[in-house]
Amino acid sequence: MDIRDAMIHFRLDGRSGVPPYRQLVDQVRQAVSLGLLQPGDQLPPVREVVRQITINPNTVHRAYRDLESQGIVEGRTGSGTFVLALPAPTTTPQRQSELHQDFMTWLKAARAAGMDDEAIVALVGFAMRSENVSNQSVTP
Amino acid sequence: MDIRDAMIHFRLDGRSGVPPYRQLVDQVRQAVSLGLLQPGDQLPPVREVVRQITINPNTVHRAYRDLESQGIVEGRTGSGTFVLALPAPTTTPQRQSELHQDFMTWLKAARAAGMDDEAIVALVGFAMRSENVSNQSVTP
Amino acid sequence: MDIRDAMIHFRLDGRSGVPPYRQLVDQVRQAVSLGLLQPGDQLPPVREVVRQITINPNTVHRAYRDLESQGIVEGRTGSGTFVLALPAPTTTPQRQSELHQDFMTWLKAARAAGMDDEAIVALVGFAMRSENVSNQSVTP
Amino acid sequence: MDIRDAMIHFRLDGRSGVPPYRQLVDQVRQAVSLGLLQPGDQLPPVREVVRQITINPNTVHRAYRDLESQGIVEGRTGSGTFVLALPAPTTTPQRQSELHQDFMTWLKAARAAGMDDEAIVALVGFAMRSENVSNQSVTP
DNA sequence: GTGGTCTAGACCACG
DNA sequence: GTGGTCTAGACCACA
Question: Which residue in C126, C131, C132 has the most chain D C-beta atoms within 10 A of its own C-beta, making it the best mutation to test that interface?
Fold first, then answer.
C-alpha cells in the first residue's frame, strides 16, 4: 500500500485549539517531511481548499504565504502554489515505509485494546515527552 | 517501570501553535486518561506551576478553570485543585503498559532511522488521520 | 406589552457581592430562560458592552466564554457571539406573560406599602427559601 | 402562619457566585429587614453555624464582624452576638404579612405553571430591573 | 470590525 | 498558604 497521494487533502480540527491557518501549514510541512508531497507538486488552489473544508479564503492564503516565507513552497502568479524542496530527508523512503507499517500495526493493537483516539494520542504524547527536551506538536 | 508519578509536571511547547493554557489542559486530560492522575490527586498549585515553567499565573488559572468546567478537576479555595474522576478507563493498566512498551520500542527504531521528532509526529499524525473521521490533537 | 427587546442590555450591581462576570452570565441565562433571547440572536460585542457599562473587556469576554462552555452561546471569531439554544422552555409564553403581569402588580403594591428594593428582595428570597431545598441566586 | 422563627437558620448556595461570608451577612440583614430578627435576638453561635452548614468558623466570624461594623448586631464577649436595631421599618408587620401571603400565592401559581426556580428568579430579576435604576441582589 | 490569548500586577476570600 | 477576580494594555487570528 502506497501512502503517497496525488494531492494533499486538508482537514481541520476545530477542537484542537490550533489556529486553522497553522493546521494547514503543519499539514503541508508534515506531508513534505514524509515525502507525500515532493518538489514540483502543486498545492490545491485556494478555491479548492475552500470547497473541501469550511474556511475563509484569506485564511488559506495566509497559510500559503507562511509556507512561502518558510521556503517550502513557491507561489507562481497565474499558475498556482508549488512545493519547492524537501526540508531534509530524515530517512530513506523504504525505512520510512517499514516504520509506517509497524506503526499501523501498533495502532490497530491499541485500538483493539479499546483505546480511543484521545487515549492513544495521550500515550504517544507522553511517551515522546518522557525522553525529550524538545517539544513537538502533532495533529493526527 | 512505573510511569506514574506523584505529581504532574507540565511542559510547554512554544513552537506548536497550541495556546499554553490549552497545552496544560491537554496534559492534565491525558494524564487522567492514562491513569497517571487519579481521583483525589492534587494538581500543582498555580504558584508552583509558575515556578516550574515560565508562565503567567492567570494562564495557569485559566487552564484549571477550564478543567473544572469540564468536570475533570475541582478547585477548593484555600486547599488546592484536585482530580475528580476518571472519564472512563479505555483499557486495562496492564495492556496499556504493554502498548506503552511497544510504542517506546517503535519510537527508538524511528529515531535510529534518523527521523526527528517533527518527522515522527508527521508520520503518527498522518497514520491516525488516514483511518479516522475524527480529528485528535496531540502534543508529545 | 412585549417585554422582548432587540438586544440584551446589561446592568451591573456593584453592591450585590456577585462578581461582575457572573452578573453578565446570569443575565444572559435569564434572558434566554425567559425567551428574551432566542437561538441565533447575537450578544452585544465585547467592545459594545464595554461602551455601555464600565467594565474591562476581559471580564466581558470571561462571561461570554463561560456561557460558551455552558453550551448557551457560541463565539464565532470575526462575526460575534450568538445564542445557541433554549435550555428548555419551562412554561408557555402566554402563561409567563400573565405571571409577569401579576408579579408587576404585586411589586407595585409592595412598593406602595413602603418597601424598598432590599426589603422586597428579602421577602422574595425568604419566601423561595422557605419551601425549597435548592438555592437560587437572583439579581433583580 | 407566622413566618417569624426563633433563630435564624443559614443556608449557603455554592453555585451563586456570592462569597459565603456575604451570603450570611445578606441573610441576617434581610431577616432583620423583614422583622424575622428583632432587637435583642441572638444570632446562632459560630459553632452552631458550623454544625448547620459546611463552613469555616473564621468565615462565620468574618460575617459577624461585618454585621457588627454595619451596626446591625453587637458581639458581647462571653455571651454571644445580638441584633441591635432595625435599620428602619419599611412597612407595618400586618401589611408585610399580607404581601408575603400574596407573594406565596403568586409563587405557587408560577410553579404550577411549570417554572423552575431559575426561571422564577429570572422573571423577578428582570421585573425589578425593568423599573429601577438601583440594583438589588437577592438570594432566595 | 469580530473573538481570543497572554502578561503584569493588584486585591479579595478562604483555611 | 490556597484559589478567584479584576484592571490595563498588548498582540494575534479571522471575516
Answer: C126
